[in-house]
Input
Amino acid sequence: SSLESNQAEPSRIMLRSACSHALRRVHHRYIHHQRVLRNAHDAGNPLYAPRESMEFDVVVVGGGPAGLSAALRLKQLSAERGMDLSVCVVEKSAEIGNHILSGNVFEPHALNELIPDWKERGAPLEVPVKKDNFHFLTEDKSIGLPQLLLPPSLHNEGNYIISLSGLCRWLAEQAEEAGVEVYPGFSGSEVLYNEHGAVAGIATQDMGIDKSGNPKDTFMRGMELRAKLTLFAEGCRGSLTKQLMAKYKLDADCDPQTYALGIKEVWEVPSSQHEEGSVQHTVGYPLDKDTYGGSFLYHYKDNLVLAGFVMALDYKNPWLVPFQEFQRWKSHPHIRRVLEGGQVVQYGARTLNEGGLQAIPKLAFPGGALIGCSAGFLNVPKIKGSHTAMKSGMLAAESAYATLAASSTPSIERGATMECYQDRFNSSWVHDELYAARNIRPAFHKFGMYGGLLYSGADLWLRGSVPWTLRQQARDHEALRPASEYEPIQYPKPDNKVTFDILTSLALSGTNHDHDQPAHLRLRDASVPNKVNLPKYEGPEGRFCPAKVYEYVDDGQGGQRLQINAQNCLHCKACDIKDPTQNIDWTVPEGGGGPAYTYM
Output
């Protein structure tokens, strides 16, 4: 069910409907054109037919908190300064918010700046944090840490427990009211470049292609969304962002990005076990001292509890299964007492950036920029990135507006570069916040769980004022060791009360893809799984994926082959990150496919 305000005005709903279906209407008109081409004797292959195009001043790729904040800020500046810019947001999920997953204890710093009267406008921030706890878990005990020992930056006074899916839907309404065109259901599959090598917009994914790559009767050629500037807000490990990183060498002067996988369930629990506004974080069990991670229980409204487990993807043991470690965590007595007797309402998973300030790439390039988790603004010790993502979008919007206002037509046609975006970021509170937290994640990599906790506590109290910066040297996939170096892990069977099997959980994600389309999870070399991953790592693909997308099955010849169940995909990107041979390439499926989150 949607978390959108029940007080939405009919005119607002009509506006949103008109905007979100405008691009579809163009596509449907285009169907007839494509069918005529396909039936004509000399039409050639319709897969290579010219695309229709739409022109904008700014195109934003991704309808999350960063992208929507950028789009809304651009229209605010248009109204304030008199140069009206046309702004489009394109989003691959069927509806805004469907692919959004986060903790989420939300810090309203950026929202206060973007929409000062958000309370009067009905923003879905309804549950203020009332209680804050931090526990260290052993196998069967819980040790609470006094709040006075926690650094001020980890306190949650003034924050809210929210659904980020719901907040994004509300932000989309605000953006549409301001004049932004928001198009959900269309995947950005290709970066467009001009003759000077600058970004000139994006193309959306073709639709109606069967598994063999042939056009079906429903075939629709993708659209070109051309723009003077394009802002990429795809979230963590975006497929277009990967291409931009490689083309412009945006990460040449920063540390390698490091990631974690977050797995989350929304539970409805008995009222006697629910404490609205309570926030609890834990570290320790079930992870060993060499594996970084943590967990949370956030008591939301209506007897709902947000239960999440975050595990770093630089783990070494190939027998580890993040999904099963999540089940073990829920089995701990301290966690079970909150969840037992309840039922799971929703399940999901998503990767997150943990590299911090040292891993942020160059932000701007000819014709565009990276914003939000496409660049990586997560504050690791806070476990918060929505507020920094929103602010990065606002900074990029201000930079884009200034760039377009100051640029001549020839310079824009060549590809304007938002040089001021980097300067604005460097002088912002986002930079200050990330600088203070810069050593926390590398400390755990360097010193392990216990040393990292001790170092981090001291560093956070000092607000990062130490004269050194710890570095991250290796990429996550390089950490995985051969399976022969470890004993296989025997995980307990699910009890179907608190713990569940992966397919039972997956059914609660709402994920869905058209089965008859090319797999969006592609192997660069189909022989690598059997040549390397299976003999050396015992097939880790089936373990690091939280959706049973990958499994080794009988090949009918006495061996095994890797089977890809792409329809299960949660778009978490763990496979793209953790595959030890970097043989898996996550690309976008047809627009509208994927999970259907509402409370996440």
Observations:
- The longest strand covers residues 343-353.
- The mean pLDDT is 92.
- DSSP finds 16 helices and 24 strands in the chain.
